[in-house]
């Protein structure tokens, strides 16, 4: 029989799929003997069953009631017992943390009778009514679907009536009256009474949490974080403990290290006389955790002790939620904590030093995406002047954008291409679309553990929170700092690393990590941690990493970043700029002599380009690809030419013969589908002299570099092969030219000749192609385009967002390799290519070569190297190392 409910004493951290992250860790802490309020977890499997069938799975109600009885027996009180009620919290807890995205209902078990019991047992009548008020409000909105604004309005009206500045000034009688109003509102809005039976409250709360898995907020968050939609959430039912019973009570959030920088030492926020929700919502400003040491030294010492235990046990940064009820400490949650990229590198290095984890484990704890983030520029603080205001540096990085004051405006402006900063007093899960759309988030309230901070860190988005100096006026769509007013649309700069806000667009400088890659300058702290991770990755990786570069400058940079050669040198840029005239002459040539003259003009220019690149990559392989794009790309635009000719005619001038000829050529060469037309090897085969000129330039560059004492290692790559015949013909021509240059110069020139595999037919006939190819390089941009039939230049803007919304794919196949389709072609080509030519060298030079997930795929597929843009080289090195773990 399926079991849907697990007591905290039964589960463990390895059961997160079934119990969700929170449930698994509550069980783990219970097993470790830490003070966890007793409770049980309803599994994700129960949730999935409920969401598929729309009804409560058989046996669930019975299991819940059995576990409830066990809880009641241990507590010596019943749920909602009129004279001394046991109260429960009901919280979501999915496999992957989704902060604030799903529902929580507290104080289950209170009703018109037990509220008096709670008042008596706690000796605090106001507290009892406030708890009941919270339950009716949360239950009414979450379970019964009443708009929460209705309750807030009722509260505001009562406060106005009493002249109370905040809800702390409402007394027990006021709150009792509010409960009546809330209950009436529920009846009025739903036609139903607020349920008085504690067991019914519990049952409906559990189902409401299940349902919240499919709430809009949760779905949006999952899409953003690539969390699968079919996991479902577990539900944790736990005995309530109260942090709002007076000054000797409180709630807090703590980290075993600083999640922003990774610095050692306990760290967190504490709010006295408050419930956990108040801390996370950032509604009141918290005090630093150290303050708890002054307020309650004993509980603080105990907390530090538990945190030490947790970090040693989990061998990682843990974050913790705790409550102190009348001096007694309770642990409400722990998990391996989210952290910034900076903290991830710093913590990994420290844990290795502390002997808690191995160097390989340290490498597994950092990511290429994180590294890429650290390579972003920061503000040039020497040039920015004084900050407008300061806040808490909650999520690092530098961002510039126009201030906007609500989520909808952020989304609207971002969709129109504007960069925006979302400015709020505090954020709620409803602000999520705006946070996604914004470059940065700025709040005037809340600490490092507020919603804004947690969510922004998770997204890698810049965030400054708790900037108390600013007053946000969402209605007036402005904020003020002292005498300065910043209206909506005004550009501001947000420094999430320093917690500063600057007026205008602040100038940016490179990051220290980037400087390290550029210069090799190694400093203590973050740079050292990054360097160590890179060293470890380079030590374990099997994949080589090359760069896509086509200028000596890019080649040199790539080499500094650790590239072990060039995997793709595109030669098309060598046909642009002031060389266009020569290219035009080549295209328009009417005789062989004219064409040869034009090609002879291009030859020395290309040779010079190749010499520079071979020099920058001396001793390392440089794969030079023969010309790929259709020739008409190098001619002027058709409309532009036609307008020029028409204008000349209108002015009574004779039309330029050259322009007329050009227009004629453009018309002749026009293709409806140029990406599927006369390009790549096809061009080389039909445009006489082109291949020979390019190969001669390469060969002569090799000769020159050799004569200069260099070690040039050029490889010649043929693009867009469909069939082995094409390659055979081009290869004959290439080899003839290489032989001619060798003979003429007396310097032997040997360049391997290989091909790109970027069309499905080539992948499927790779065994035959390998007979002519000395190496393969997958062009996954074109291979994705042609396998899916997606125009790479159009579809992403045209309809990918709809496809992503519908879940047809989770990420663009142009960004991360589609393992199932394109990946399968890669695997076939690797297997058949190597079967035909053992030891065949195979790489990839499409954009996917720098994408972390794709790098893992290429490692698994047995490629020899990946090639990516110079800036992605460190990312690819790191991920290639991680893939090998
Ligand atoms: C490719 O198609 O993946 C490739 C690297 O070539 P290009 O992007 O130049 O078409
Ligand atoms: Mg291509």
TrEMBL record:
It comes from the Bacteria. It comes from Streptomyces xiangluensis. Residues 418-499 form the PEP-utilising enzyme mobile domain. Its cofactor is Mg(2+). Coiled coil: none annotated. Residues 532-881 form the PEP-utilising enzyme C-terminal domain. This is Pyruvate, phosphate dikinase. SUPFAM superfamilies: Glutathione synthetase ATP-binding domain-like, Phosphoenolpyruvate/pyruvate domain, Phosphohistidine domain. The gene is ppdK.
